[in-house]
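Anyone up for a design puzzle?
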């Protein structure tokens, strides 16, 4: 599915944009089912917490900033269960893992409402679902064209290489969303990765990333899909102990998650 150049770029930078994984008909089907999920199942809140909010946003925007989210869309919609088992994507993930077997771990909707859709502070995804080793890749399915105006993904190239970094998770005795110190990790120094609807941006569980606030008058709709080598052991966090669908190859003997 992927060229050697694409695979090399992923290993060097820790992220890769894959163009046109989904056809326009498939994107339309995902959008239509998403409309139902938004009405019936999704939650809108102020989003992630922490002192970074006052650095990334003015007091007014910080007060109004919102994030709409939902986990595991593929449990609620056939368009989404087809999307996460898409064979072009599964083969691309197998190419990047360097393994024939790929297991679905989770899906998570991140929908930025117009004008004040929440920015994301720089972070790795490993604090949310710790795994051993490097056999875990996140794939972000784009339902809208993105750029810095509506909060496209931004990455620190090469930041995956050293594995997990300790994040700030508590401030003055209060739990906050895991994030990296804003004085050491600056969003404005990261690489923007704009994309078109139907593209997928993949990145290592360890690649540092974030995004700006959505300043447009339109929603920005992205869904993250986590995939792993079924032999990669989960240590903590989201969906711990839950076996996922095998989307490429087979589950090797002994790889059923028991904890
Ligand atoms: O939706 C975004 O802009 C960022 C998403 C993100 O950071 C993540 O999925 O880990």
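Challenge accepted. My sequence:
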């Amino acid at each position: 599915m992927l060229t050697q150049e694409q695979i090399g770029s992923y290993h060097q930078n820790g992220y890769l944009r894959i163009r046109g994984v989904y056809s326009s008909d498939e994107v339309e089907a995902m959008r239509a089912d998403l409309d139902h999920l938004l009405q019936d199942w999704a939650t809108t809140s102020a989003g992630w917490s922490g002192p970074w909010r006052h650095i990334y946003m003015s007091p007014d925007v910080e007060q109004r900033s919102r994030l709409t989210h939902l986990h595991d869309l593929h449990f609620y919609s056939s368009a989404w269960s087809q999307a996460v088992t898409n064979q072009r994507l599964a083969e691309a993930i197998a190419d990047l893992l360097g393994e024939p077997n790929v297991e679905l771990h989770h899906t998570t909707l991140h929908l930025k409402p117009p004008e004040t859709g929440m920015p994301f502070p720089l972070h790795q995804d490993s604090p949310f679902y710790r795994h051993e080793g490097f056999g875990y890749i996140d794939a972000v399915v784009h339902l809208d064209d993105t750029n810095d105006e509506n909060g496209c993904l931004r990455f620190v190239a090469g930041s995956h290489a050293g594995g997990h970094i300790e994040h700030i998770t508590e401030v003055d005795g209060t739990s906050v969303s895991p994030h990296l110190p804003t004085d050491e990790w600056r969003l404005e120094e990261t690489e923007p990765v704009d994309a078109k609807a139907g593209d997928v941006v993949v990145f290592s569980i360890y690649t540092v990333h974030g995004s700006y606030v959505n300043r447009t008058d339109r929603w920005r709709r992205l869904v993250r899909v986590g995939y792993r080598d079924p032999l990669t052991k989960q240590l903590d966090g989201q969906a711990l102990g839950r076996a996922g669908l095998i989307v490429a190859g087979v589950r090797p003997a002994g790889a059923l998650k028991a904890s």
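A detail worth pointing out: The CA atoms of residues 169 and 178 lie 5 Å apart.
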